[in-house]
Structures are given as C-alpha cells and as structure tokens.
Amino acid sequence: MQNLVILGGGYGGLRAIQKLLNEKDVKQVSITLIEKEAYHSLKTEFYALAAGTVADRHLRMSFPNDVRLELKFEPVKSIHLDDNKVELESGDFIPYDDLIIGLGCEDKYHGVPGAKENTLSIQSMRRARKTYHVLQGVRPNGRVAIVGGGLSGVELASELRESRPDLEILLYDRGENILSMFPARLYNYVTNWFNENDVTIINRANITKVEWNVLYNHDEPIETDAIIWTAGIQANKIVRELDVDKDQMGRLFTTKHHHLPNYENVFVVGDCAASTHAPSAQLAEAQSERVAMLLNKKWKGEPYPEEMPKMKLKGVLGSLGKKHGFGLMGEKSLTGRVPRVLKSGVLWMYKHHSGH
Ligand SMILES: Cc1cc2nc3c(=O)[nH]c(=O)nc-3n(C[C@H](O)[C@H](O)[C@H](O)COP(=O)(O)OP(=O)(O)OC[C@H]3O[C@@H](n4cnc5c(N)ncnc54)[C@H](O)[C@@H]3O)c2cc1C
C-alpha cells in the first residue's frame, strides 16, 4: 500500500486529491491530507470576505469523503525530508512514501518596519475574517489604506467601496500604475473606475514604516483607521525553512516533473513552487493534475514522460465590485460586465465541480 501525504488542502492539494481519487487504478494507496482548517477555503474570494460582501460560509467547502482519504485537521510544524516524515504542531510525526507540498503563501513585508505587526491581511481565512471585523467597525467616514495595487489590492479596494460607501479609501502602489503587470488598456480602465468611484490611488509610493493606524509614505505620516497589506507574497514559512534551493519568494525549485531535485518522492505545487508563471489558483491546479498523473505512473512502475504536457492556463479575471471587472485571456484584454460575469461563472463552476 502506497502512503501519500498531502500538506495543505488549498487549490493545489484539493485538485491532487480529486484527480487521484477519480483514477480507477488508484486502489492500493492511502492518502492523508494534513490541513490546519477543517475545510477547503476559496482564497480567491477573500477580498469579498474582508470587505463584508460575502459570508465566510460561502467560501468554505468540505473535502471529499472516501475510504482512501484520511483527513487530519492539524497544523504542520516542519518537514523532515531526509527521514520521510512530517512533524505536526501536536508533536506527532507522520511518515510518507510520497509527499505533495501545497501549503500556499504568506504576506511578504519587504523589511518595512512595523508592517507585519500593524497591518491587516487577506492571505488566510482567519486573517481575512479579522480584517472584516476591523473594517466593519471603522467609524463613519473613516479612512482605510490598502498597500499594494496588484490584483488582490484592487479587488479589495473596489469591493470595500461598494460595501462601505462612506469610507475614504487610499490605494498605495509603488509603480507608475496599479496592476502594472497588465496591459495599459486594463490598468487605465481600472484607474478610471477608481476615479469615478472615489478611491484615491497613490502611485510611486514608498512605504517606509507602519505604526498602528499610521502609514509612512516616503516618511510622511498618514493617519488611518485601518491598514491592509496586499503588497507581496512569499512561500509558507515551513517551506522557507527547508534547507533546499529556493527563489527570492522562498519558493522551492523543482524539476520538470515537479519534485525536489534531490528528493524524487517530494512534489511541490502552487504558491510553494518556484515558477515562471504568476502565482494563481489555476497554476496550482494545473501542477497538481500533472503530479497526480506522475504519481499514477510511478505507482504502476511506468516511466515519467520525457516531455510534460503543456499547462493550459486560461488567463486572469478580476472584479471591480459586483458589476464590473477586467480580465486577460491570452493577448485579449476584457473590461466591463463580461469579465465580471465570467468570474462569477468560474467560481460557480469550481463549487459545482467540487460537489457544492
Ligand atoms: C484576494 C486574492 C484574490 C486572488 N484571486 C485569484 C484569482 O482570481 N485567480 C487565481 O487563479 N488566483 C487568485 N489568487 C491567488 C490564489 O488564491 C493562490 O495562488 C492559490 O490559492 C494558491 O494555491 P495553493 O494550493 O498553492 O495554496 P492555498 O490555496 O493558499 O492553500 C494552502 C493551504 O494550506 C493550508 N496551510 C497553510 N499552512 C498550513 C500548516 N502549517 N499546516 C496545515 N495546513 C496549512 C492553508 O490552510 C490552505 O488551505 C488570489 C489570491 C488572493 C489573496
């Protein structure tokens, strides 16, 4: 009996489970998922949870119920690569034959003093829930600062605009434009939306220090009622602590077969894996589908394919509140209602295919 352990039941972990359980051949395998929460979290929607437009019960999903799958809802403490075992916070050790690491990411504070201690986050459900409580408690006409004008900062700012029309919302970004990784047509559209909806964008920002409810931009203090950090991510701490090769975001380098170069039985997916693609749920899922295919081959004693199948990444969709959105599908930029409807459709399909 093969003993596969999966760390993290996010987009990558869940997709690996679904794929492996759907394989008719996968009978002689026991899969153990170790996940710190008792549910799969729809992280791509955490901006709406934090803004108060979606209840968290809509962003939780149960894991599959299958005799081949054991669920352990406990935090992982560390991974012992040379001993093929995982240590849990409880002090228990879980041995594995094969391991998939899908522990996701954390905020990266770029060494800005006080940022970690004094800002709110939307990187985990618990932290997004806390952000929600603080934001809903902000005094009437209060001021909220969001640091980071990437996808999650933009989605949060627009959703918060709709949820709390009274608030002054400041969106700080260090680039010349928000969403600088997107084509000009898209960021111009989003910038106009913010102008029309009274969200202030501060470009070329340089946050030098954060104190409780005080943000320093180029050393200039700005009083706020809440500060949310969406200005960068890094791999989960457990992964960053491993003594193997990593990129600047602490993500692990893998071979084309998605395992660690010196550990053929340790696969890495999603935000924990170094990649030339932008981190995304889609990427985590695509990598996990490949890993499931490779594990199947391995367990049947078949060789891995020399050339891996191409990963099909469909593009990015972002929301601007509940009615407008933007997206990039290949070379094609989308703006307005269509990408927003598509985004809702993708979420519906995801829940539907996962049995909800
Ligand atoms: C606001 C926001 C909007 C986004 N929008 C999009 C989007 O529109 N499209 C898109 O493709 N991507 C989007 N992303 C990015 C996407 O959510 C991530 O890239 C994706 O979640 C990565 O999947 P993963 O499986 O690597 O990690 P995750 O989905 O984060 O899963 C990691 C899992 O590990 C668990 N875990 C962590 N630490 C431990 C531990 N110590 N012990 C046990 N379990 C642990 C967590 O609870 C979690 O369930 C968005 C992200 C954010 C924050």
UniProtKB/TrEMBL annotation:
Gene Ontology molecular-function annotations: NAD(P)H dehydrogenase (quinone) activity
Record keyword Oxidoreductase present: yes
Domain FAD/NAD(P)-binding: start-end pairs: 3-286
Cofactor annotation: FAD
InterPro entries: FAD/NAD-bd_sf (IPR036188), FAD/NAD-binding_dom (IPR023753), NADH-Q_oxidoreductase (IPR051169)
Signal peptide per UniProt: none
Listed GO biological process terms: aerobic electron transport chain
Annotated SUPFAM superfamilies: FAD/NAD(P)-binding domain
Superkingdom of the organism of origin: Bacteria
UniProt keyword terms in alphabetical order: FAD, Flavoprotein, Oxidoreductase
Entry's family note: Belongs to the NADH dehydrogenase family.
PANTHER family, per database record: 64 KDA MITOCHONDRIAL NADH DEHYDROGENASE (EUROFUNG), APOPTOSIS-INDUCING FACTOR 1
Name under which the protein is recorded: FAD-dependent oxidoreductase
Organism: Salipaludibacillus keqinensis
